[in-house]
Amino acid sequence: MTQYLFYFLSFLSVLSALMVVFSKNAVHSVLYLIITFFSIAGHYILLNAQFLAIVHVIVYAGAIMVLFLYVIMLLNLNKDTEPQTSNISRFAAVIAGGVFMLVLTSGIRKADSLVLEGPRNADTGLIETLGQVLFKQYLLPFEVSSVLFLAAMVGAVMLGKNELK
Amino acid sequence: MENLLILIPLFPLLGFTILGLSGKNLSKSTAGAIASGSVLLSFILSVVLFSGLVSGSLPAYQQKLLDWFAAGKWDVDLSLMVDPLSSLFLLVITGVGFLIHVYSTGYMHDDDGHNKFFSYLNLFVFFMLMLVMGSNFLVMFVGWEGVGLCSYLLIGFWFKNPSYNAAARKAFVMNRIGDLGFLIGIFLIFIQFGTLEYGGTQGVFEQASHAASNDPVIVAIAICLFIGAMGKSAQIPLYTWLPDAMAGPTPVSALIHAATMVTAGIYMVARANIIYTLAPDAQVLVAYTGVITALLAATIGLAQNDIKKVLAYSTVSQLGLMFLALGVGAYTAAVFHVITHAFFKALLFLGAGSVIHAMSGEQDIRKMGGLKPHLPKTWMTFLIGTIAIAGIPPFAGFFSKDEILANVYARDKGLWLTGMIVSALTTFYMFRLLFLTFFGNFRGTHHQKEHLHESPASMTLPLVILSVLSVLGGFIGFPEVFHLPHWLHHYLSPVMEASEIRALPAEITHLTEWSLMGVALIVIAIMFFIARSKYLSREELPEPEEAKLKTLHRVVYHKYYVDEFYEGFILKPLGWFSKQLKNIVEKELIDGVVNLSGQAAMWGGKVLRYAQTGMVSFYLFMMVLGAVGLWIYFNLF
Amino acid sequence: MDAINSINQVPISSYLLLSSVLFSIGVLGVIYRRNIIVMFMSIELMLNAVNLMLVAFSAYRNDPSAQVFVFFIMAVAAAEVAIGLSILVMIYRNTRSIDSDELKQLKW
Question: Could you report the predicted ipTM of this complex, rounded to two decimals?
Fold first, then answer.
């Protein structure tokens, strides 16, 4: 049962990812990306990473994609404003991407024998375990990420200021 | 007592530093006083040390100044030593040097570079003292090089004249050629003996005394060191610089090219006497070089018309006689002649300077004459000097020259005969010089006649002192036949005893020695009368103009065309060779390579900049390709 | 749930393969498209592929710290998007275009 779910979800994510890249309309790309995010969230649930799945949906599909849509609407992009790439560039890009994929996948050929599987712990992925690890071992990065957000906020405000006055 | 050693070279060095740094800020009299005073102080200290050595309190003084360097197991110290041999040289250098300093205050009085001159003189005295006071070959070499440098500076003192600069360069280059031989000799000494120190149980001489006679390495060392002496003491083939060095001011000629620097070669051979005694083959070379040089220079001196050139060739000739003495093993005789020669040659040069000063710069003796009544003190001292150099008893030259000739006779009659001929020629050309300069009618210009005046006391006083020394100087070494003590021989015996053990000096009977002296005196008298008849009793000048010279006379006058020979066979090919090196190797090869690398960098930049298209997509594309490439590289190789 | 107590029938290599494929599609998107917004989205896709792999390893190795890492990656991605989009807007204001090839003044 999990297998079939896995295959369905992976098929969905790959397909929508391809559509993100190849669709001509920017808004369509955004929508396809949202579908990809949802399918990946489904993978997370399959892997028992419950907290992460929810957070993934909220942050990515909820916040980041909305930002993208805002910007696209702001810039009023549609099919006409789409830059045209020459056929040779497209061809070269596809070939390069394909080669890259080959290279990556060939590296994981023997992954099965390398990863030692042990009895599964059902607790990994629960929000409680995650909280334990996050607030004990990784407390400093957690606090520093707040500084990161501060920087991002300040930067966004600064960059967004209209200086035409 | 030992601590005094460092002060002796220190005073002239201080003098040099003070005068060198203060430049024209000091008045001329102050500068002269500082310079002369520093040498005087060194002289006083030398006397103190000398008296200490004479009284026999110590065989030698040694003072280590500092560890100079250590390379592996080899330590070289900068240390000074005074033993009987060097003490004599110290007295001569500082004593005669002091007199010449005093003389220079008068002679260089009107010169703009007066202070610079004295600073150079002091520097020279410093280096010369280091040369004779060094206790190992390396310190001697430092002094050796240093005096060569000062010789260059002082010969080219009036640097605005390009021919004087050329003369200075010639002196320096020829010295350097000799120095190469010296350096190779030092290398050989080090290889053979492992040290460069003279004395001590592990010193060079102590080790050398155990060697067999005519050991090839010892012979090689002796020859290489002698090559250095050839350059420094103007023997064939490196002698042509000394006559040209007369371009320098006369006190320079007196100090450097008569009394001190040129005697450095003699000092070196005398110091290394054991090495030469052990290498009879090398001694043969030394003796023959000396005697041929003496003969050659004496013949050239006959035909010269410049007062200083005659004296210069006379110096070369006398140095040849000294090397002849060294070559037959008569080390003490050579040192004796160095001392007496310093006295009378310095006297003659300073006298010549006085004459030149009186004649407002004229140096050609054909334009002099009849100076006797105008320059009484100069004339008297010059006469004493001439008598001394001719070897007329009881003046100094007689004793030293006679001792040399006696020792030479004991070894080789042919060499003795040549030495006798040289003596005869010496008498002849010196009296020729005297007669042409001081006797007869005045042949100069009217302007010169008006300005004719005796030199000031600062110049005549040293002349007087030196003439007294020329008279009395011979008494330090009476020959045995007089049944009077040969003090010098006794004093130098600690230095020479190693040689005397290995090779006893040849003996001659008393009768032989008396007859040799008699023959010498007869020859001198004959030459005197010939010179007198040729130059004194005639009215007109017997020297023909250059165009009318007969062939032999012309060849001798032109110094046997040796300079031209060197110019054509050595200098021109070298010049051609270096021109080729400059045009081909330097300009095209080396410059080409350097320029090429610059061009290559520019070309590379020009080609590679097209990779910066500015388009992000292109960069990303390249990144992907790069990542793929790297992965392939790391996984396949 | 079934998934928790049963031995997962999906081997980890499948997840790795999926992650690699998504990543290379992201790379393809970056070099294929010139629209800056779509390039940005492809970068997000790449980040997500990495996240997926990390979570897969976390589940198979029983190690929660990989999920914490994913957490931080998400945080950074969010901040990065904020800044990136504001830069994009600035670029649009200045060049009136969202073609990445318009930004080629720093060239030879």
Answer: 0.88
